[in-house]
## 1
Amino acid sequence: MAAYPAWDDDSARLIIAGLSHLEGAALPILHALQDEFGYVDPKAVPLIADALNLSRADVHGTISFYHDFRTAPPPRRIVKLCRAEACQALGCETLVQDLAREHGIVVDNHAGSQDAVVETVYCLGNCALGPSALVEGELIGRADADSIAALCGARQ
Amino acid sequence: MSEAIRIYVPIDAAALSVGAEGVAQTIAKEAQAHGVAVEIVRNGSRGMLWLEPMVEVETARGRIAYGPVAAKDVAGLFEAGFQSGGVHALCLGPVDELDWLKRQQRLTFARAGVTDPLSLADYRAHDGLKGLEKALSLTGAEIVEEVKQSGLRGRGGAGFPTGIKWKTVHDAKATQKYIVCNADEGDSGTFADRMLMEGDPFLLIEGMTIAAIAVGATKGYIYLRSEYPHAHKALQRAILKARNAGLLGPSVLGSGKTFELEVRLGAGAYICGEETSLLESLEGKRAIVRAKPPIPALQGLFGKPTIVNNVLSFAAVPWILTHGAKAYADYGMGRSRGTLPVQLGGNVRRGGLIELAFGISLREIIEDMGGGTLSGRPIRAVQVGGPLGAYLTAKQLETPMDYEALAGIKAMLGHGGIVVFDDSVDMARQARFAFEFCAKESCGKCTPCRIGATRGVELVDRIIAGQERPKNLAVLRDLNRLMTDASLCAMGGLTPMPVMSALNHFFEDFDRPPAQPLPLAAE
C-alpha cells in the first residue's frame, strides 16, 4: 500500500503552482494534492485560495462538498464497496452484515486505528458482475465477505 | 514474429475484475513454455460479461472465443491447442457466430472488443475517422442539420434532441465555445459509457471533435467520474495519441481548425451527472445545480455557449456522419430513433452490453438474452433507468425500450440501464434506499430535495415499523408529489419515481407486520 509523505506546505505550493494556470483549476489541484499526500490538509485552503484568487470559504466549500476529498490522513488501505442497486440485487447488503458479524469489519467505520477501512460507494460500473469493490485502482467483481475481508488483511 | 498468433485478452475493467490480467500474464508465460510465438492484444470487452475473461484467438476460421477463462485453465487450453482454435470445454466457437452478438445492431459499439482500443491505426482500419473527415467537408450548419435529421436524442437520460442543442450553440455568437462530455456515469446499472471509453476511446474523441467543428468550439472537456480509474487511463492515453497524430490540437487533421481536449476527474458526487452541476464542478466550485434558464447551450461553462452531451450521444455522431442521417433514423421506433446500448445487470445470468434499435421489449432482453436471474429464483422487480428510474413488475416486461412507451407507464429509459431483482427483494427497503441515496447525494440547493429526501427516509422507516401506516402513507404520497413538482432538477424531481413505483406495484411490502424495531433514520 502506498505510503504517503507527511504534509508539506512547500511541496503543496509547488503542486498548486504547477496547475493553477488551468481553467477551473480547483479540482485538478485537490486531486493532485490528495494523490501526493493521501489527503488534503486544511493548511492547503489558504494556499489554494491565494493561488486561484478565491476566498478561503470558496475553497473550503469545494473541498467539503465532494465525497472523495479527505481532510485527514487516510487509513493504510481503502476498500470501496459498491452498495448501489445493481450490487444490492446481488446481495451486497448481506455482504455488509457478514463482514461485521464474521470478520468484525464495520463498513464506513473510521474510528480506531485499523489498517483498512471499507467505504461505501455507489456504482463502480461493474453491474453485471457484482458485488463489486475498488481497491487501490483495481476493480474486484463477484466479491463476497471473505474476499473483502482478505483484501482488508482480515483480522481473525 | 510475423507468424505470431494473435490472442485477444480484454483490458476492460469488468474483465479485469474477474481476473483478465492474470489470464493475460499466464498466456504469455505458457506460450513461452510451449515455444509458441504469440502477440497478446488487450482489446475492449465484447459486452458478454458473464463470459469474461473471454479470450479470443485469431485463426484462419476467424476469431475463436474461449470463456470464461481462469488463469488456471490456460495450461489446459494450450494442451488442447487453443492457439489454433482447438477444441476445449471453454470453447465458444467463432465470435461472430455467437447468438448474443448476432442479435445485436452494433453501430456505436461496432469496434468495442474488436480492436486494440489505443491503436489509432486499428481505429482507422475499422472505419474510424470517416465521420470526422466527412464533417470537415461540410459547413457547421450542415453537420448540425445531419445530426438533427438523424433523430438522435441525448443518451444521458433526458432524451433531448441532440441536433437542436447543437443548433443553439452553433447559432450563438461568442468568442469562446465549449464542448463538454458528461462521463459522470453514476447511475447504478449503467456501464456503457465506461465500456466505450475503455474499449473505443477514439470514437468519443472523434464525436466531440465533430461537435467542435460543427459549432466552432476550440476547447473540450470530458468530465469523468473518479470511480472509473481504468477509463481515465485509457482516455488520457488516447488523447495523447490523438494529439500526436494531429487529430486533436491546433489543426484538426490539417484543417486549420483548433480543438483541444482534456479529461477532468470528478470527486465522487452523483449530482455531477446533472449538467449544470457538472459545469459548476468543472469550474472548480461546489457542484450546486444552476437554475435554468439560462440553458448551458447559451450560457454554459464559464458563461459561454456549451454543448453538454453524454458519452454515447457524442459516440453516435461519427456513424451518423459516415452513413448519413437517414441510415441512422431507419433504426428505432416512434420518436426514439437509432440504437440504444442497453446495459443489463443486477441479478441476471447473462449480463452485459446489448446494443439494439429502440423497440425491443424488456422481456426479450431480460429473459431471452439475459437468461433470467442468476439466483434462479423468479424475477420480482426490474429497475430501468438508474436509481431515479421506476421499479417495474414481471408483468410489465412487455414494454418496449422506447422513451415514450416507458414514460407512458410512469417509468423512464434513462441511460438504458436495467437492474434485475429476484423475489428476495424487499421493495419497502428499496424505496427507503431511494430516499437515503437522494439525501446523501443532494446538492442541497432546493428544499424539496434537501429536506424531502431525509423526511422520506423517516416516513418509510415509520411505515416499515408499522406506525400509523395510513397517515404516514398519505404523507409519503404528498411528499412525493411535492418533490416531483417543486425540485430544481431531476435528482429531487425523480427520486419519487422509484418510491412511487415500489409503493404502487409492490404495496404488500409496505403492509407487512413490523418485524423489527425502528431502523436507524438517515443521518
Note: The longest helix of chain B spans residues 447-464.
## 2
Amino acid sequence: MSSNVKPTRGAPVKSVNLHIGEIEPGVPKVDPIIVADHVTRSFGGLTAVDVAHVEIPRNAITALIGPNGAGKTTFFNLLTGFDKPDTGRWTFLGKSLAGIPSFRVARLGQVRTFQLTKALNLLSVLDNMKLGAKGQKGENMFVALLPWLWRKQEEANEAKAMELLGRFKLDTKAEDYAASLSGGQRKLLEMARALMSDPTLVMLDEPMAGVNPALTQSLLDHILDLKTQGMTVLFVEHDMQMVRHIADWVIVMAEGKIVAEGPPDAVMSNPAVIDAYLGSHHDQDLGVDPHAEETMHALKELLDDEPSS
Amino acid sequence: MVDFWQIIQNAAVELISPTTAAYALAALGLAIHFGYTGLLNFGQAGFMAIGAYGYAISTLTLGFPVWGAVLVGVGGSIIFALILGIPTLRLRADYLAIVTIAASEILRLIFTTNSLDAVTGSADGLSAYKGGFAALNPFPKGTYGFGPFTMNEYDLWVRVVGWTLVILGGLLAWQLMRSPWGRVIKGIREDEDAVRALGKNVYFYKMQSLIIGGVFGTLGGMIFIMPRAVVPANYATTLTFFIYTILLLGGAATILGPIVGSMIFWVLLSAVSGFVARAQAVGWFPGMSSVQAGQTRFIIVGVVLMLLVIFRPQGIFGNKKELAFVK
C-alpha cells in the first residue's frame, strides 16, 4: 500500500453494473468474489441463517443490512469460519471455504473485524499492528530463538505498521497500550490491523457502532480508500446514511433470509425493505414526539398521585 | 534468647538452594502458561512429578544413564501436555484448569498406589537414584563456599546445575517472549478470536506454550529431587499453589519475577519459621505448642503475601501501567 493514496473527499465514486440480469435476491454478479449456496445455521429451533444463494461483487463496497436478529453477524461468522453451518457451501475467489478453520480463511486474504472491538489491550498499538502481518518467520517457535533470521522482516513490518498508523492518525499512540485508546480509536486500530495482512476482502462488522460523528467521516474515507486500492469490502451496518453514502451494493437480510438486494437507492425505496427493516416511520425523526405535551401531562398527574413522604 | 544471626544464616541458605532453583524453574514455566499465554494450568505439580518420577524410575528400574533419564522425564511431560491439551485447548480457559488439577492429582495417586510399589515405591517413594548424577560431578571432594553458603562437592554440583538451568531457561523464555512468536502468545492471552481472525493457528500456539512451560516444570521437578528423595506427598496441589504464589509475588508476565519471587518466598518462609520456632521455644508465645509453631509460618507468609497482592498486585517486577486497564 502506498502512502500517496489520499482519502477520497466529497461524493464517492460508485461502482455500477455489478449484476447480470434482473435485480432480485440472489442475482448473479459480473465478477463475484464470494458465492454462497444453501447456507443454513440454526440454534435450537431458531433458524438464524437460511441463505439460498448470494454473490458478493469484487472490488466494490457491499453493505449487509437488516433488523436486529436478522442473522447478519451469524452469516459473517459462517463466512469467516468462526461458526460452522448446518448445511451449505461457499467459495472465495473460486476456492471452497466450507469447513476451513477461521485462521486459514484469514490467511487466504479474507480478514474480518468484530462488532465488539477486539483490541489486544495489554499489547502496544504497534504490537497490535505487527501481529496482523502475514507469513512472519519469527512466529515459528524455533526460528523465534534466532533473531537474525527475522529481524529484517520485523523492521519491514514495523515500517508498514507505522505508515498505516499514520494514515489512521494513530501514529502518536504507537507505544501506548491499546487499552488506552478510545472506543472509536480501537475501531480504527482494528481496521488498520486487518490491513496489515494485505487482504483481498475486508469484512467489517458494524464499523460505525459507537464511533463519534467526527471520527465517522474519517472511517468512511478509509473504507472508500480500500476500494480505490483494489480491495473488496463487505460490511454490516445499521446507519442508513452511511450505507447510502458509500455502498455500491446493498443486501438486505431479514429472519435469516436475503429479502432484497440492489444499488442503495433502489433498495431503500423497495417496499419490502421498508416493511422489513426501515419501518413506516423511517423518514421521521423519532426524537420529536407529536404527543409530547400529552405525555408530559400524564406523567405529571402520575407524579402528583405519588404519596408525599 | 532468640538467635537472630542463626535465623538469618538459615534463611540465607535458601537464597541459592536447589529447592529455590527448582521452584524458580517451575514458576518460570507457569509464567509462560499463565502470565504470557493466559492458560490456567493448575497442574504444574503434575509436570514436576513427571520429572521426578521419570528420572528416578528410568534410573532405578530401567538402568538408564543420566541423559536418558532426563529425556524420559522431558518426553513424559510432552506427552502429558499433549494429553491435557488436545481435548481442552479448543475449549474455554476454565476447562484446562479443571483438567490439569485433576490430572496432576491422578498422577500423584497413581504414584502412591500400592499395586505399583515395585516401580514407584508407593507412599515411601524412591531414593538412591543420585549415583549417576553425582558421578558427573567435576568438583573434587572437599568443602566449598563461605559462611552460611558452606557446602560439600555434591551440594555445589546440584546448585551449579540447578541455577545454570534457571539462567538458561530464563534466557530462553526472554528471547521467546520478545520475538514475533511471543507477540502471538501475548495476543492469545488478550483475545484469542482476534488472533485467529489475523490468520494465526491459536490452538497450535497454545499447545506449544503448554509443552514449553510443562518441560520447565519437569526440569524443576528433576532439580527438586536431587537434594532429597522422591515422595509422592510432595506433589499435592499445594505445590502448584506455592508456585502460583511465587509467580504472583514476582509478577506473572515477567522473566525475573518467578526467579526472584522464588528466592524471596523461600528466604521468607525459612526466616519466619526459624523465628517462630525459636521464639516459641524460649516462651515468647505463651500457650503455643511446638506443632502449632511449625504451622504458624504458613499463616504469616500467607498474610504477608496477601498484603503484597493488595498493595502491589502487579508483583515485584510487574508493570504498574498494566493494572490501569485490568477489568
Note: The longest strand of chain A covers residues 32-43.
## 3
Amino acid sequence: MIGLAHFLTVAAMVFAIGLYGLLTKRTVVGILMSIELMLNAVNINLIAFSRFITPDVLTGQVFVIFTIAVAAAEVAIGLAMVFRVYRDRNTVHAARLNEMRW
Amino acid sequence: MNIALLTSEIAVLVLGLLIIIFDVLIPRQETHRSLGYIAACGVLAILVHSMTQYGAAATVYQGLFVVDNLALFFKQLFLAATFLTLLFSVEYVEKWIQNSGEFYALLLFALLGMMVMASANDLITMFIGMELMAIVFYALVGFELRSKKSSEAGMKYLMLGAASSAIMLYGMSWVYGFTGSLVLSQIAVKATASPAMLLGMGLMLAGLCFKLSIVPFHMWAPDVYEGAPTPITAMLAMGSKAAAFAVLIRVFLIAFSDLQEYWATIVSLLAAASMIVGIVVAIWQTNIKRMLAYSSIAQAGYILSGLLAGNVAGVKGMLFYAVLYMFATAGAFAVSTAVKNHNGSDEIEGFSGLAQKSPLLAVVMTISLLSMAGLPPMAGFVGKLYLFTAIADKGYLWLVILGFVMSMISVYYYMLVVKTMYSKARDQQEFVVRGSLQVVAVISLLASLFIGIYPGPLAKLANFAAQALW
C-alpha cells in the first residue's frame, strides 16, 4: 500500500536532485531546469499532504495551481534573460557572469 | 466581502495599466517624461487616500487578505518609497533606459506585489504577493539594455531568487502538512515543536532572509545592487526589504509565536552576523552602490533584531526604523542618481567636489549617511534607541553592545564618502540637477532631521500600527 511517506520520500529525492543540479550545473538553462525540479518536488509534497492530511478541503491543491502559474512566469522571465545574456556575451555559462566581484 | 477595502490595490493596478496605454499613445520620438510624473501624482493621490483607511480591521476573501493598521502602515511606506523613486528616476530613465513607459508600469506592479504582501494573512497570498514583486524586480534589474552589468545582475537575481522561493515553498509545504492549514492564525493554534514543523519554519526563515539579504543569504545583494539601474537599487533597498519585513513580522509573531524559544537564538545570530559582515566589508568598497548594498545588509540586521523582543515595543522599533531608513536611502540614492547622470559612473571618487558644484546635494548625502550611521540628532539615532531598548528589556544586551560598536565603525566609511564630497573638484563641468530630484532630496533631508529632533508623531503612529498584531 502506497502511503504518505512514499510521496514525501519521492518529493524529498526530487528536491535533493534539483538542489544538487542548482549547485553543480554550469549553464544558466540547466540551473533553471534544476529550479523547476525543486518547485515540482514542492507540488508533490503539497498534493500528498492535501490528499492524506486534509482530504475534505482542497487548500493544498489550490496552492499547487498557484505555484505552477508562478513557476511558468519565472521561467518566461528567465529565458528572456538568457537571451539577453547570450546577446551580451555569446555564452550562457554561469561562470562567465563575472563582470562584478568584490 | 467588502471590495472597498481593496481600493488602494485596485487603484495601483489601474494606474499601472493606464501608464502602459499612455505609453503607446505618445509618439515614439517624443519625450515620455510625463509618464513618470503621472505615475508619481497617482501614487501620491493613493497615499493621501489611504490615510482614510486607518482604524479598519477586516478581512477579505475568507480571511486570506487582512486590512489592519499594520498592513496600512507598510502600504503607506511602500507608496511613499515609490513616489520618491519615481520623482528622482525621471532623468535617469530618459538618459539610460529605453522603454520608459514599461519601466514605470513595472515599478507600479512591484508596488502592488508589496502591498499584497503587507496584507497577506495566509501563506498563498503571501507567496503570490512575494512572487509578483520578485518577478517584476528580476525584469527591472535587467532593464538597462545597454549595460552588460545589468543583464548579469538580472540573471543572478533571478537564479538565486527563484531558488530561494523554491526552498521557502518547500518549507511552507511542511508547515501545511503538519498543521493542515495555510492561514496564519490556524497555524498558530496547531504549531508544536516537532521536527517537521521546525524544518518548515527553518526553510521559510531562510527564504525570507534571502529577500532581506541577511548574512549568510546576502551574496546576491552587492552584485544586484551594483548592476541594477540606480532607481531600482533604491526600490530594492527601501521597498522589497520592508515588504519582506512585513511578511516576517506577521509569520513569526502570529503563526510561529509559540515557537519563539526555537527561532529566537537563530534570529539573534543572523542579526549579529549581518551587522558585522555588512559593516566590516563595506569599508573596502569603492563603488557607491556596492557600499550602500553592504550598508543595507547591516541595516537589515538592525531591523531584524527588533523581532527578538516579540512585543509591541519591538515591532514599533522595526516600523520606525524602516521608515527612517526609507527616507535616508531615498536621499542617498537620489544624490547617487544625480552624480551618475552627471559623469556616468558609480564610483565614490566621482563624488569629489560635489560640495562646490551642488552644496544642497552634498548636504543631503551627508545627512542621509549620518542618519544611517545613527548619529544624533539625525533620525537613525532615535530609531536605534527604540530598537535597542526593546531588545535590551528581553535580555539581549550583547546584541545591543555589538550594535552600538558596529554603528560607531560604520561612521568611518560613511565619513569617507563625505570627505570625498568636500574635497576639491576634478572637473569644472557644470552640474545640472532637475527640479524633481531636488524635491526628493529636500524631502529626505527634512524628514531625516524632523524625525530625529521630534520623533513623537511617527513613534505614536508606529505604536498604533504595531498594536494591530495583539
Note: The interface with chain B takes residues 8, 15, 18, 22, 28, 31-32, 35, 38-39, 41-42, 45-46, 48-49, 53-54, 59-60, 62-63, 66-67, 70, 73-74, 77-78, 80-82, 84-85, 88-89, 94, 97, 99-102 of chain A (CB under 8 Å).
## 4
Amino acid sequence: MASTDDKVILKSSEGECFEVDMAVASHLQIVKSVLEDCEGSSDKVVSLFIVEAKYVAMIIEYYKNYVELKEKHEEGGFEEKLKEFEKQFLEQIDKKELKGLVMAVNYLNAPALFDVVCTAIAKHIENKSVEYVREYFGIVNDFTAEEEAQIREEHRWAYDGVNDD
Amino acid sequence: MISTKRPKACSSPHQTSPSLSVATVVNNDDLLVQILLHLPVKSLLKFKCVSKHWLSIITNPQFSRRHYPVINSVCALFVQKFSHPRQPEFDFVDLHSNSSGAPFRFLTFSKDPSGIKITQSCNGLLLCSSYRANSYKTWYYVYNPTTKQFSALPRLRKASRVLGLTLAFDPWKSPDYKVVSVRKCDTSRHRCLIDIYSSRSGPWRVSGNPFTAATGNVKFNGVYSNGAIHWISDYGPSLYFDVDKEQLNQMPMPPIPDGWDRRRVMYFGECRGHLHLIENYSPPRDTPFDVCEMKKDYSGWVVKYRVDLDGVAKSFPEMARRYLDPFVLNYYSFQILSVIESGESDDYTFLVLHVPGKLIRYNLTDDSFKRLHVIGHGGDTDMEDENAENFTLIEAYKYIESLALV
C-alpha cells in the first residue's frame, strides 16, 4: 500500500479535492505541520479552508514541476530550468489572480513560490502609476490633495516614465 | 483532480483569517513589505503617495535596512561644474533614458554659507563638503540624494592638516558607513595619521600609528572598493587601507614608462567591485590608451580594453586643438569622467568622456560611441562656447538609487 502512503489529499475552500504526491505537498509548510499533528491518523486529507481551488491547482502545478525538474537536473542546471518554467507559469496567470495567489501561498507557507509571486507583483506594478496601484490593491487614498502634492514634489523625477495601465 | 468520499479531514491549526476573499494583500503588512522589498527605489519613492500606510512602511528605518540597492544600478551621473562663482552647479545625466529631471541643480540641503560640493560617490551615498571655506570652517556631509537626507559629520580635529576624506559604505555588508580621514602629523612633514568616523559608534578616533607617505603626491580623497580605500600617488608608492582590519598596504602599480618622471593618471575609480585605472603616456594625441583593472588578489593590473579616440575626434572635431601647446602636451581636449559597468550583461562596459561642451558614451566592448549629453549652461555659465582651447575640467559622480540611512 505504498502508493497511498505517499499521497495526500488537499481540499479547497469549495470542497474540491486534489490528490498530490507527498514529495510535492511537503513543500507547503502548513500541510507538513498538519500531517505531523495528525500522525497516526489514517486520514490523509488536509483542508485548506480558505484557499480557492484555482489557487490550489496553480500551487500544485508549480511544485510538481519544481520536484520533477529538481530530480531531472540533479547534476546541475536546475536553477535555469526552474527559471524557464517560472516564466511560462507566470504568463498563464492573470494579473488580478496574482494577488489571490500570493495570499494563498503566504497562508500555505511555501517559500520558493512566495518569492516568485512577490517578484512578479513587484515587476507588474514597478512602472505603473500611483492611481493604478491604488486601484489594483483596492487602496483608498487618505492624503489630502496638499499632502499628496507635497510628497510628489519631493521626488518629482520618480514620477517620470510611467507606463500605460 | 480526484473526488474523495472521506468526509472527515484533519483541521488546520493555522486558521487565521476566515476567508481570503475578504482579506486583502494590503491588510497583511508582512506580505506587503515582502512585495515592496522587490521594488526598485524609484518605484518606492513614487509609491510613497499611495496612502499614509504605504508612506509609513517605505519610510520606516527597518524597511530601509532590509531594502538592498540593486548591485549594478548606476542609473545616472551628477556632473559637477565649477563655472558658478559661489557654488558648484550640477547637470544630471540619465544613463538609461532621457526622461528624468534633475534632482537638484545646486546642493542646498544644508544652509552652508560657502556652498556645497560633492567629493565622492559611494554605493548610493555622497560625501560632500563646504565649497569655498577655509579648513577651519569646512563642514563635511554624508548625503543620500535619493531620500534627500543628510548628516553633517562632527568637526575634525586639526582640520588644517587634513589631506583628504573617503567614505566607506557597502550596503551589502552593513547598513553603517565609515569616513576615513588622512592628516599630516604635527611632528613630521611626511608622516600621516588616519582618523576614522563611524556612523554606528560615533566620533572621530585615531587609527593605528603614523605612517610615511609622500604627502604632496598622494591623492587622499580615495576610492572605496571591496572593503578597502585606495589612494594613488603619481610619484611615490600607492596605498590601500583595509577599513575593517584598519590595515595599510602598498598597492602594486604599473611601472612608469622610461622618459617619464611621474604617472599621468587620467582616471582612477571603481564600479561593481572592480578598480579601474587609466594612465596615458601617448602625447601629443593622448590616444590610444589602456583601461586596466586590478586583479582580485591585488597582485597587479590587467589591461582590459585598449581605446583609440581618433574615431571620436573625427565625429567631434571640436575636441581637436588648432595648435599644439607645448606645455599642455595634448592635442585632443577630452577628459575621462567615468568607467561604468552596466548591469544588463557582464561585458557591457562603457566610458563617459567629456569633450568640449558634450559628454560621450564610448562602449568599450565594441568601440561604438554616441553623444550622451550636452552640457547645460545655466545663468552664469557659458559652456556652450567651450572649445578645445578653453576646455574646463568637470567632475562626475555616480548616482545609485538607495534608501540607505545617513
Note: The longest helix of chain B spans residues 29-37.
